[in-house]
Design the sequence.
């Protein structure tokens, strides 16, 4: 259910940018969402639809691009991508060490909006 506050924040961004650019209707919103955000696309659209009646984004479609998790290995200092729900999550494919710093894959943002 943490999708609700996330979608509320995204809606605020959409409304602010629509007003700034004098857009009367937003038809689609492209989002980039990190795989570690633990968000579900179906629930995201559900809560967005719940929040948008009477706004410029009513009926807008969410187009979600899932961003890879990128880590910096503490052992060999190389960057690598890893899958959150895999058995080898966080294990460097170069040196085999587990752990390191997460560089990408934890956030979300609006990439673009389509308007009418």
Sequence:
């Amino acid at each position: 259910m943490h999708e609700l506050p996330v979608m509320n924040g995204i809606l605020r961004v959409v409304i602010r940018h629509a007003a700034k650019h004098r857009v009367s209707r937003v038809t689609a919103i492209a989002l980039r969402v990190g795989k570690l955000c633990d968000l579900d696309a179906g629930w995201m659209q559900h809560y967005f639809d719940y929040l948008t009646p009477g706004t410029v984004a009513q009926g807008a479609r969410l187009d979600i691009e899932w961003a890879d998790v990128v880590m910096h290995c503490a052992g060999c200092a190389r960057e690598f991508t890893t899958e959150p729900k895999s058995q080898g999550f966080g294990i460097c494919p170069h040196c085999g060490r587990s752990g390191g710093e997460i560089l990408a894959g934890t956030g979300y943002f609006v990439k673009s909006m389509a308007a009418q």
